[in-house]
Structures are given as C-alpha cells and as structure tokens.
Specification:
eight-stranded mixed beta sheet; 34 strands; homodimer; alpha/beta
C-alpha cells in the first residue's frame, strides 16, 4: 500500500473526509457516519480507519501499516479540538468507542468497545464530570467489553468476574474504593486471558483496532462470507468515535429509533429509549426501556417515554430520523444517545423489517416520493422471505418464543399450531371434528396424502427439501418442517420423543416452516393473507420482468390458486400425481403395470383414458388461453405398487390373482437405484401404450375444449431424455396419434412436444435434441442430482454437515449450483438455440421459486421459470428484481 | 450430379476404369475386381455402377440417374465384345450376375442375383451350351434369387415353390418341359409377390440394379450402419459381371480359397471346392465340398480335391492367391469358378480370421515382407476380439455348435464347459473333488465369491456388464455370461429352466463369455494361452503407443497377473474388496460401522489397520518401482452389512448386541439410491477416522518397503469428489498424517494424492479441483451412470431394447459415449491442465479395456488407461493402434 493513500478519515462538526458512497473504504457504518456529519447532523466527532489498513494488517501478521499510528495521532488531536477534551487528560478526559464496520453488515466480527481511554488519572477526571459511580460504570463497561471482544475471555467466566466486582451497590463507596474494585477485575481478566488489559489509552485504542481487523478472519466471519458470497478481500473498517454519555444522569440515556414500524410498516417514529444508560443496555434486558413516543405500543406500559420527559429532544429526533429516511431512501434504524439533554446520533442504517411491513413500506416510500422509481421500491422487498411471510401464516412477529424443540429444514413456508398426531387417518378424523392437528412422521408417502391435506402442519424426522413430504406440502400450501433428525417417532403410536422429552399424541406444538423449527405449545399465529398491498406491488413487478412465471400444478385447485397468484400458465403438470389420485385410479394403474396379457393391459388403459382426459380437460379449462405443460409419466412403475404383504393381499383381491404372483412381480421390478433406473421416457419407449394413452387423453381433452370455443394450449413434455433418438421416437408416435385423431375429429388444435433437460447427457446433446423439440424445460432437481451424483432422498445424511463445514455454500437443491448445473444449463441453452433459434426454454425444478436461481435464469436468457403456486408471487418479484438489476448493471 | 461424371466403370481382359484406391466410388468388391483386372488376373468382364448413382437413385424416389441406361447399354456392348457373346442373343447368350458392394462389407443389403438375361429364346441358346438341364439349373437359380432378393418373397414359401418345381429329377424331361415347369414357378412367384419376374434381360438387369441400390436403406442395413458408425451417405455400388458357369459340367465348379488358414494362420492355400456347382452352393450345404489341396484337413475326407482332379488349375490358383496376398498385404479370401477347366476369379477380400490365426498371420506377413512395417502388422489384429480369443479359452473354432440355449451379455471372455450348480458352496465342494462346474445364479453377491472362484464359468439371469458377477469374474479371469434373461432358477435348488427346457444340477453346459451365449452339453474348449507369438506382437505394440497401460487390481494375484501381462502399474485398487476378503475382516468392518462409541470404533479401526497395511505392502511389493493407485473406501457403508434376519442373528453373536439393534441400524442406513448416496469421500468426510486409517496403512506400508530398500509409489485416490472443498479437506488431513508419520519414522516416501473425476460436477469444476490434486483418474463407470442418469444395475431392463431399436449405437458402459461422457472428460482435461499443466490423467473405468474408448483416450491426450488384468494385453495393442492411426492421420 502506498503511504500516500489516505487511511484515516475524519468526521464530525458538520464535516467529513468521506461520504455514503465510500462504503468500500469506510464500511457501511463509517460511510453513513461521514454522510451524517456532512448533513450537519450531530454525530460525535471521530474517525474511520479504512478497510485497506485492515487488509494490510492481515497480510502482515497483524502489524498495522507503517506510519498509521501518527496518522491516528493527528486524527485524535483533531477530535480533541472539536470536542474540547483531551485523550488521557486527567482534567478533561476524552474517551473513545471503537466499532467494526464492513461493506455489508456481517455477524461474527468484533462488535464494540466503549469508554476507551481510562487510566488511573483519567478515572478521576471522569468522576469529576459526574460522580465516582459514573466513572465506575464507564470503566467497568470498558473492562468487560475489552475482555470479551479483544481478549476473548469466556463469557460465562467473565460474567462471574464482573458480578463479583459489581456486587457492592455502593461501587466501593468512594473514588479509591471504586478504582480498587475495578483493578481487581482487571487482574482477574489478566489471569483468565493471559493478557493484561492495557492501562494506557493509546494502547487500549490500538489493541481494539487490531482486534477489529483480526476479527475479519474469525471462523464465524469466514463461514458467513463463504455462505453469503462475500469476498475475503473486502476487509473491515474500524470506527473510532468520541464518547457521549447516556449514563451520566437522569436527563441522559440511549435509544434506538425507526423511521417507520419495522413490524407492520406504519409511518411514524417507533422505538425504545432507556434513561441513564449506555450502549447495549437497551437490547441487553435487565432494565425495561420505555417508548420513544407517547401513546405507543401497550407493551411499554409503565416505563416513561422519551417524548414525555424530553419533548424537545423528541421533536429534534423526529426531524432527524425523517431527514435520514428521505436522504437514504429507506426506513432507517437509528442509534442515538442523549447526554444531559443533548441529542447525538451514533449510527444509522437501513432497517430490517417483517414481510408485511416490507410491502407497505416499499409502496409508502414510493408514494411519498422517498424512492424515485418503481425499481427502487421493488428492491426493498425480499422476494423470498418477505413475500412468503405475507403469503403464509406466521408466528406473530416479536412474540416470545420458547426454546426450539427441534430444528429441521424449511420445507414448506408458513407457521401452524396444532395437536400432535402420527397417523394420517387420525389426522383426517380429528381435523374433520374441527381440531387443528400437526402430523408428525418419520417420513411420508403417497398413503399419507389425505392426512397431510387435513393437517395444519407437517413435521418429519427424515427427508430433504424435495422429499415427498416437502413437495406435497408445498403443493398444498401446508407448512412443513422436514429432516428434523432429533425427532424419534415412538413405537405403538404414543407420540414422539426429542431426546428425553416425550411429546404425546394430542399435545400442542407449533411449527415454523419458513425457518425450519418446531416448538412445544401453542404459539400465536397470524393467518395467511394475499393482501391488496402485495397485489399492487406484484402488478408493479410484472412491468419490470422479462422472465415469464408459470406454476407447477397437478390439480384444478393448484391451477386455480396459481392463476390467482398470477401464474401465466402451467410449466409442469406431473401426471403421476393424478395416478395416485384415488384408490380406484391406483388399482387401475396397478392392474396396468401387472398386466400379463395385451388384453389386460388394454382394458386398464381403456379405464384410465377417460379419467386422464377429464383431468387434462379440467386443468386446461382452468388455464384457458395459457400454456399447460403436461409431463408424461415419469417415475418408475414400481413406485405405484404396494411393497408389503398387506398391500399384496389387498391388491390380490382387487385383481383376482394370487398374492404370491403380485409379490413376485413387485420383487422383479424392484431397482437398486430407482432414480437412475427404468423411468421417464424409458418406460414410454418400452411400454409405448402408456404414453400413447396419455397423449391421446391430452389431445382429446384439447379438442373437446376447442369444440366449446375455449382456447387450450397443450404442451406435451417427454421426461428423462438422454439421447435425441428417444425424443424423436416418442415424438413420432405422438405426432402420428395426433394426425389420426385430428382426421377422426375433423378438427385440430395446436400442440407442442418438448422435453425435460434433466440429465447432463441431454444438456450436452441439446443441439441434437433441439431438432426434435418445440421447447426445453430444465428439470433442475434431477439435473442437480445427476450432476452431483447426489440423491435428494439420501443427501440429508451428510449435506447438513457439509453446510456446517462450509464445503458447500448452499444446499444445491435449494439454490441452483451455478458452477456445475448452471454451466450445463448455459451449454444447453446455447446449443439448443444454435439448432433452433426460437426454442422456448424455462426451468421447472424447485429452483424456479428461489430468487438467486431466478436471477441466474434471467441472466442466462431463459424464457420462464415455473414453481409451486405459493412461490409464484415471490418469483414474479424476484424476476422483476433480476430484470431491474441486470438493466442497472448493464449485464 | 453432373452428367459428365463417370458412373459406369468397366473391368476385364487386363484393363479397368477403376482400381483398389476407388473403394468410395466402386465399393470394396468393385474396386478389387478392377484392381485384379489391371493385374491381368482372369476376372469375368463386367462393369461397376458407382455409389453416386446409388445416392442419386435413392434421392429421386428410385429413379435411376438420367442417361445411365444408355451408359449401361454401352458397357454391356463392351462386355459382349470381350466375351464374344451377346446379351439376349439366342445363338450365343451372355448372362450377367449383379452384386451389391459398399465401401465396407455390410450385412443387410441385397446380396447376389445370378444368371440374369434368360428369356424363352436365350433359354434355348443356353441349353445349346450344354444341355437342357444346364439351362434349367441356370434359370431356376435366377428365378429363385430374383424372387428372394429383388421381389422379397417369403423364404419358406419360396423354398416350397422351388421344391415343387424341381421335384422332378428329370427337369421336365426336355427343353419344353423344362421351360414349362419354370414358367409355372415364375407364375407362382408373381402370385406370391404381386410382381412379375421380368421376362426380358434388360428389365431383369435394371430390376436387380434398382434392388441393389434400394437395399442400402433396408432397416437392417440402416441399423448396421448406425451401430458401426457408417455414414448413410456412402451408398453402395452395384457390380455387373458376365457369368461363368461352374455348373456346366464335371470339369467345372466353384470354390473359396484362403491364402493362409483363417483358423490357425498356417501358410499355404486353404479352402473348399465343389464340382459342377455355382454361386452359393459351397456354403449352402446340401452337397459336401472337397478340399482345394490334397492332404488337407481330415474333415474333407471323402470328397475329391481340386488338386487331384484339376492339378493345373490348382497350380494357377496357388500362384494367383499368393500374388493377391502380396499385392493387398493381407490374407485373401478369394471366390473363384472353374468353367470347363478354365479358372476365373470372382472376388477377393481380406479374410476374417480367428484370434490365434490373426496373431500368427500378422507376424508372418511382417516377416515375409508382405507388410512393410510394424504398424501395418499391428493393424491386422483386433485388439479386443482376437486378443481375447488368444488369452482366453475358446470353443474350438469351427466345431459344430448346438442351437444356443440362452444368450446374454459377454461379461467376461473365454469359454468353459462344466456341470451346472446353483449354489456357491456346492460349486466349491464339487470343484474340490476335481469336477468342472458352471455356477448358474439369478445374480451373485459377495457371499458367492468363493463359488465363483471355484467355477470354470458363471452364468447369471440378471445383471449387466458391470454387475457384481461381471466385475468379479473379469477380475478372476473366469468366463461369464450375465443378463441371460431367459434363465429362470428353479426353486428348491433343482437347477434352472429356459422356457420349457429344465436343466438339472450336474447336467453339462458350455458357456461362451466372449460372445455371451450358453449351450447345452459339453463343447470342446481350447485352453487359454499367452502365446510367445502374442508376446512378440505386444512387445512390438509397446513401441508404438503413447498411452500408458495400467491395471485395475485389488489382490496380489491380480497384480502379479497384471504385471505378467505387461501392466505398468495399478491404476485402481479398490480397497473395499479387501474389506470383503475374509469373514474376520467383514465382521471387523461391520463392528466399525455399527460402533456406538468412539472406543468401539477405534478398537475396530485398530484391528483393521494392520490388515490393510499388510494388503498394501504386498501389493506395492508386487508392483515394486511402479505406481500403485489406491482408492479410499468408496461404497456406501450399508453395503457391508447383512440385510436379512439370518445375518442380523449371526452378527449379533459376533458383536454381542441384540439382533434388533442391528436390524434397526441397518434399516436406518438403508438408502433409496445408494449410488447417489452417502458414499465415497462423503463417508471419508463425515467419518474421517476411516480414511485416516487407510491413509496411515498406505503410508506405513510404503515406509516399511522403503526400509527394505524397495521403491514403492503409492498414489492415494479420493473417490466421488463433486466440489473442490471435499478434496482440499481430505487432502489436508492426509498430508497432516503423512507429515506426522514421517517425523515419527524419521523417513519419508513420495506419495501422491489425487481424485477420481466421476461426477459431471467434478468434470466441470476440474479447474478448481486440480489445485488440490496430483492426478485425475476418470471413473468412467460412474461418470456414465450420472451423465446418463442410468444405473448400471438397472439398465438391463431397457438398454438391450434400446440397442435393438437403435436408439443407442453402443452400450455406453461398454464403449465410452463420446458425445456426452467424452465431452465432460475433454472439458476436465482442458481445465485441469489449465490449472496444473503437468497433471497426470487417466481412466480407470471399464472403458479402459475397450479399443474404441482407448482410441478416444489417446486422441484427447490422457496419459494412461487402466483396465482389468486380462484386458491389459488388448489395451496395449489398442493403444498402439490408436497411436499409429493418429500419427498416420495426423490427428
């Protein structure tokens, strides 16, 4: 680093070296402090040491850059002049705080050390500002924070040491007694950490500075960066600010204010204030803060408000917070301190907010002119978290939650409270009586679907984000937590256990499928709501997106919901879900699979044809005028067969053949790796009659709708194609069937035939496959499985550990893996379009609802994403954000 | 096609328009006919209609190119002049044969129509050449062939019609009677086919010509081309040749001669001759041909030889055949006809030959100077078929085989005859008594290995080329046929059935693992033999190859065999096979997997460590001075556990814990898709202790050998890496273990750490993975599975049908799929070398022994291939052929 580069940036008294646009050098906190100083807002004077100084220090074994100490010396002198006090001056001591601050807010780094600059001499000077108790309070805080964040003393031990030092309410009784008690604390800290707390202010300051820089590389910080894609070479800045004292008397205090309510978005100052307190006291508990304004939330009843005691400060704060909101173009979360009636702003940043608040705030700020354009408003809402919170029931924000009973995967968003049941039939029976139930199982299967539908929520011990439970629950919009490994279902149907805690049938639990947690007891839940506000926001989003948003939907209910959420068609209808629909259907499908003769097979197909035709007719009627993409049968046939003696017996009576022969057939069809087995178009090629029946049902349904004057757009999708010959073969017989049907009906409909690209082989051969396809739909679930050689069903055995070891940044089934799966998609897009420039392409895997993956889809030039109905609104927003961001960045 | 292009090429009487270098235009047969004519060899004059004429005809709905009929007319006239007879001339009729002939020999196309040009008038003329019986014989042949190959009359029906026409030994008694009988045959053919046989010579000729061209597009021909990678746009030529008559009297006849024996390669004329016969009579059976030379094979005893009856012709034939061999530089397979003592050569081509013959011939031709260089000699031996035939026992070439009992996959080459057993223990017991047994099972598992080892051959009803049976059998060198779907194992251990035929225990069967067939009874088998001739050929091959050839070997026996076959190291040692080694080992491994406490786990590891160390020490001792690549544990742990009550009980007594708890643990570990599950480095990351133990065993074994003064080259291979972080993590703890061991022993060995590239994700991330790897080994089995989304274990359910439908050209597990898997390999090579230019790379999947795949490896710049020991010789040859071909073609 050249010594001419500026590394120390002053702020305060209406001036600053930096500004809001210098986040890279000053970090977010430092940049905003500088900006506020320039706005003539009262910020305690100080200076920011740059991120470059941090990187230099880290690259040189913790040695600060040469010459920086004298730069800091000069900066300290300037602060002394502005404040009118001197660092280390017993007569009028100046103290400092030191805080870290990276480009983006990042947990895992050193937080704050207050009251730097106390030694025996200044201790006395400090006491003179108020009394010896004030000096005691400041020095105690310093020692505690320094020991904690700089020396890394064990928190529990430190708490004990501090308690011992402060057990005397009298603080030692006088100045000397106070000093003595705190010197003992300093000694105990030295003994615990092996390092002494420096006794001189300059050493304290440099120690805190080095600790801030070093904290960039704590394992937790590294892990956070890995996960959030933050570059290691950003570094953190350190903010050194002159202390102001909220703990100096009854007309002092410290608080946090929001420019609008972060809970519901209501306009108006919102926040908490604690008199005669400093720093973290507001959030640390112990003392209860009061509200900032009068007439605020009843929760504050009892504690005095800032407005009532210090009305002028309140008026000033209101004005400043509003100015900041307008200036930064977003709701502000402001930390401030009042010292003897004088207001100081310590920090401002964009506020975190709940989903409903986010939507309201985005619209209000746009309407109020705080945000200049729609794209800016759209960017204020998180397309996944906020939208899901609005769309799904949630545990009342801010309510007190008991300790988590079990954690698992956030498999289907929303919260639900209900009585525990572990049997699907019982779930259905209790629900029929009006009881709220949560179905708890090791895993779910097709046999549980009725119980899942009846339940308010689902909790499973095993299974990933794409397990049966997860997929079905999301489709139904039922909150679901899967893979909660600690849950052990008790034998005999008595409930379940987590460790030593047995949870009985009928006991209340609450699950949060948005975060993946389960709690004992009944927590308050806000019901789901597609609010008019969200509707307005999404309509706005639609004007900003290039990507189409379709839905994965298998039933008329799904389709209706999807359309009401703004889906522009069905991107994936899984016909096998129709096969599971009712007992009658399943028996027919089983008869088909087990048919020994062509006659038996044809009879079963003839029974299925009208059922499928009716399915497709209803679906396309619901989606009139929009494309409906129907995937031909995909799973291995044995998935439709029973797998135990009981099932064989039942099927035996239905089919009139011995149970043994059924058991034998099932055994013959069993596969080692069904995911990689005889499924998809492989079945449709070996058993052509099944696909022919499905194609006929689709086309006949379309003709019937056409005859009614409706406008069906069937798109027939062939799954699991690996080589172009497969698609060519299947397409040939579908086209042949269509021609013959159209001749027979003397009418025709436009239909498309396309394929899933869900195998690496297909992606690489997309040039050849495109010749036979009208569209490509990337099945990113299967493509992820095969690209990684990783079964969704089995991945939970080690993937969580991989995530915690940071071997993977994201679960690749949740967020599309751009390096591997993404490259295959990119290759397929390029090659597919090279063969057929107008080829329509989209994705229909789970990733279609994930904002980061949607951004990838936008960037690579896909035409649409398709996701489960409840994710359609979030996808519309994410697509708009991706579009806006690519426009902005010129990508 | 421009009308100036020559489309009709004359040959005969010492002159020809074409030559041997014109295969593209004239086809192989036509080019060689032209070449022989130029060599002044007596070829009946004729002409070849070019492949371009064929393509033009096919592109124009069967219409011959404009103007070609008059060109043919002129060509016929020239032949008339040379022969001194006229087409359609009753006085001196000229007849023609028409034969197809593409660039390469290709079944599925029209073969031959003889005696074209007979009508009522020429019939009489023909009779005048000999007698009315001769005319009858010629016309009958023409009608039969024309009906068969041009009109496509059903063969069985045609045979009946011809039989009816020829039942009269007197051929109608006179000329008129003969004509009448054949006219009836012609009518019957017309009725059967709906088309009349043309009655005029010119129409007959053009009909045959059109049929030849059209036969390029028969489904069988298209299929053959698809499979063998022959371009559709080559087309076939048609050869029109003046007839010479082997059926004109006792001093006439037709034969086939080889310049050396195609069975064993012995020099000297070899072949068969049939007096007074024409065309296909020699091979059609019915009449038994005699030998060409006196004192030949005893099989001919009885029939007169050509040499004895026509000694001058024999001398002339010898001279011509030798000239042809020298001229074409390979053993020739020559068809000839003798008409009234005059020799005519009808065709010459390179002879097909058995493995032992191929090796001898290649060396003899080189030694004799017939072939100018080694590369030419190497090219004469098929690296798979011929070498396998030499290396493995085979059914005596030419012996009469009964009809095939069951066909399956050629899983492990070689032939074996033995008594049927269906139980591994019984196989072992009978073998111990000296009985030859063939083990027949539905499938095999680790429990059957002792029986497989004891058996002479293995036959399974299910499983593919990489099933347990196939992999283990190949490793042992035991002939094996897998996936013989028709085989049904009888319950109760009474044997097996194929359809209605029950085969009892103890009954003899013979299997041919080189082609994938099983026969009833005991066929004669020639034992395996690594002949000195093959040794010399392979030593020669080593001088022509760039690719290294290593072996996949898990045991000392494997390693020894591999080294004796010329392997340059071990490219893949699968440590899990060591875990299965003995009962004691398996119990220890199971104890490890089921360990509840660290102490139990550590105890099991401590018992395994010395065993593994001894394994590795023995292996590296055997391969002293050569690299030994050891793959850390790869399969899912549950593969080592029993899966039924019996096994739980046994293990329960061993481990001293209740069977229920074992059953429960096994159930807990069971996976939906084990191939995509918790295996490979995933296990080594979650259960680090296992890999640490293995690494320690490898390094300690190396140190021990080093201390003895030996030269071990351990290469530690980490399987199933998907992301670079996995390899980095495992490598870090291996390197750490190595450093600590080296310090402890005060000695060190060079070792490498590398990875399998066997997942598409790894191939795409090869740039990042290379940073942590010393070598890449492409695991093409798994890479094929994941690229295609296709489990080897389950693929046999539909892959054979795909092959027969020509949806895939090759089984991708046998021959590397260049479009998909190959591209991933190419990408990985490029990216890996971009990061680390010196990175060593090879393949260790099944494809390492497949010549076509080896050629791909050579082209893409891999460093080595690794294959099972018995495939090492073939791989050495294939690598040399690939090297030579790439040099020749300048690829």
């Amino acid at each position: 680093m050249s010594s001419t580069t500026q590394r120390v940036f002053q702020f305060g008294a209406g001036r600053a070296d930096g500004g809001a646009d210098m986040r890279d050098q000053l970090g977010g906190k430092g940049a905003n402090l500088a900006e506020m100083a320039r706005m003539k807002i009262a910020v305690p004077p100080g200076f920011t040491v740059s991120t470059e100084a941090c990187l230099h220090t880290l690259a040189n074994k913790g040695r600060l850059p040469e010459g920086i100490e004298s730069e800091i010396e000069r900066a300290v002198e300037q602060v002394e002049q502005l404040v009118g006090a001197r660092f280390g001056d017993p007569a009028s001591p100046l103290l400092f705080s030191v805080r870290s601050g990276a480009r983006v807010s990042m947990p895992g780094m050193m937080d704050t050390v207050l009251d730097i600059g106390i030694d025996e001499a200044t201790f006395e000077g400090l006491a003179r500002k108020a009394d010896y108790r004030f000096a005691f309070d400041c020095y105690r805080r310093f020692l505690q924070m320094y020991a904690d964040v700089v020396l890394g003393v064990d928190k529990a031990l430190l708490d004990r040491l501090v308690e011992r030092a402060t057990d005397d309410a009298d603080c030692g009784g006088n100045l000397n007694g106070a000093w003595r008690k705190l010197s003992e604390l300093a000694d105990a800290i030295r003994d615990a950490s092996g390092q002494a707390v420096p006794t001189h202010g300059r050493e304290q300051l440099l120690g805190a500075l080095r600790a801030v820089f070093a904290s960039w590389n704590t394992p937790r910080a590294i892990a956070y960066r890995r996960i959030h894609g933050i570059a290691d070479n950003w570094g953190t800045a350190a903010n050194v600010m002159s202390m102001v004292y909220g703990n100096i008397g009854p007309d002092s205090g410290t608080g946090v204010a929001f420019s609008r309510s972060p809970a519901d978005g209501q306009p108006g100052l919102y926040g908490e204030f604690l008199f005669n307190a400093q720093g973290e006291d507001v959030v640390a508990g112990g003392r209860t803060p009061g509200p900032i304004s009068e007439g605020a939330d009843a929760a504050f009843a009892g504690a005095p408000s800032l407005e009532s005691r210090l009305p002028e400060v309140h008026v000033e704060l209101c004005a400043i917070v509003q100015r900041l909101e307008r200036h930064f173009g977003d709701v502000q979360d402001v930390e401030f301190t009042v010292e003897r009636g004088r207001l100081w702003i310590l920090q401002t940043r964009n506020a975190k907010r709940a989903g409903r608040a986010a939507v309201r705030i985005a619209l209000d700020l746009l309407d109020d002119g705080v945000i200049p354009n729609e794209a800016g408003a759209l960017a204020l809402v998180d397309a996944r978290m906020h939208v899901e919170q609005v769309l799904h029931a949630e545990i009342v924000p801010g309510c007190e939650r008991p300790p988590v009973l079990a954690t698992g995967l956030a498999a289907s968003p929303g919260a639900a409270a209900g009585c525990v049941v572990t049997d699907a039939d019982e779930a259905e029976q209790r629900a029929a009586k009006g009881e709220a139930v949560v179905l708890v199982r090791r895993e779910t299967s097709a046999d549980d679907v009725h119980g899942m539908h009846a339940a308010k929520g689902i909790l499973t011990a095993t299974g990933g984000l794409t397990s049966h439970a997860a997929v079905v629950a999301r489709g139904m919009g039922v909150p679901c937590v899967t893979g909660a490994g600690a849950v052990e279902i008790a034998e005999g149907g008595s409930g379940f256990r987590v460790g030593n805690r047995a949870v009985a049938i009928g006991e209340w639990i609450t699950i949060d499928g948005t975060v993946g947690a389960a709690y004992l007891g009944r927590l308050p839940v806000v019901p789901a709501d597609l609010s008019p506000a969200l509707g307005r926001l999404l309509a706005m989003a639609d004007g900003h997106r290039r990507l189409g948003v379709l839905a994965n939907a298998d039933t008329v209910e799904d389709a209706r919901r999807a359309r009401s959420f703004g889906a522009e068609g069905i991107g994936l209808c899984r016909t096998e879900h129709m096969f599971f629909g009712t007992d009658e259907r399943l028996v027919t499908v089983r008869a088909l699979i087990l048919a020994d003769t062509d006659a038996e097979r044809d009879a079963a197909l003839a029974r299925l044809l009208p059922l499928q035709r009716a399915d497709f007719e209803a679906l396309m009627r619901e989606m009139d005028g929009l494309p409906v993409t129907i995937r031909l049968l995909d799973p291995p046939l044995h998935e439709f067969l029973p797998d135990e003696a009981e099932g064989f017996a039942a099927l035996s009576t239905h089919l009139g053949r011995p149970p043994d022969s059924i058991a034998e057939a099932v055994a013959r069809m069993r596969e080692r790796n069904p995911m990689l087995g005889f499924r998809g178009c492989r079945v449709g090629i070996v058993h052509e009659a099944i696909y022919r029946m499905q194609a006929q049902a689709i086309l006949e349904a379309s003709l019937a709708l056409r005859a009614e004057g409706l406008d069906p757009h069937p798109e027939i999708m062939v799954p699991l194609v690996a080589v172009p010959e497969e698609l060519a073969h299947v397409r040939a017989y579908i086209d042949e069937a269509a021609t013959s049907l159209f001749n027979q009906h003397r009418a025709r409909v436009d239909y498309k035939v396309g394929t899933m690209i869900e195998l690496p082989r297909a992606a690489l051969a997309a040039d050849e496959i495109a010749a036979h396809a009208d569209f490509f739909s990337f099945g990113t679930n299967d493509l992820t499985q095969t690209t990684f050689g990783l079964s969704r069903d089995d991945a939970e055995r080690f993937l969580p550990q991989y995530e915690s070891m940071h071997l993977v940044a994201h679960n690749p089934f949740a967020t599309l893996d751009e390096k591997g799966v993404g490259e295959l998609i990119t290759i397929a897009i390029e090659r597919g379009r090279a063969t057929k420039p107008g080829l329509t392409m989209g994705i229909c895997g789970e990733h279609g609802g994930d904002p980061r993956s949607i951004a990838f889809c936008d960037r690579t030039g896909l035409d649409y994403v398709s996701c489960s109905p409840y994710r359609v609104p979030g996808a519309r927003l994410a697509a708009a954000q991706a579009g806006a961001s690519s426009t902005r960045k010129g990508v």
